[in-house]
Q: What sequence folds into this?
């Protein structure tokens, strides 16, 4: 394994396009299409899945160091799953969402 400048072991991610291909195939299944139609009122054209697959295949054509840098940049740009509120923001949000329950 390669060690970085700081001594940590660099874990290189293996880029596989198989999950993108599986997601694209699932997108065209009746189960997915009916779920989309029920939820949104329209069928899914699966363009996002096609874009993900083409993007993955495009990354496969690049040098591994360049592809790794692109993937790391994307990972850092993703928003954090949790949004932390200050107590004042939380109280205002609670009041907005559930204030009617206090009046009962």
A:
């Amino acid at each position: 394994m390669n060690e970085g400048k700081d001594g940590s072991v660099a874990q290189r991610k293996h880029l596989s396009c198989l999950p993108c291909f599986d997601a694209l195939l699932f997108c065209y299944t009746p189960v997915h299409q009916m779920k989309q139609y029920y939820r949104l009122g329209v069928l899914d054209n699966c363009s996002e899945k096609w874009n993900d697959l083409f993007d993955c295949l495009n990354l496969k054509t690049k040098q591994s160091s360049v592809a790794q840098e692109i993937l790391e940049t994307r990972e850092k740009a993703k928003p954090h799953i949790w949004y932390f509120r200050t107590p004042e923001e939380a109280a205002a949000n609670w009041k907005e969402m559930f204030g009617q329950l206090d009046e009962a």
Residues 13-63 form one domain. The helical segments are 18-27, 30-40, 47-60, 64-77, 87-102. The two ends are 63 Å apart (CA to CA). Confidence is low (pLDDT under 50) at residues 1-12.
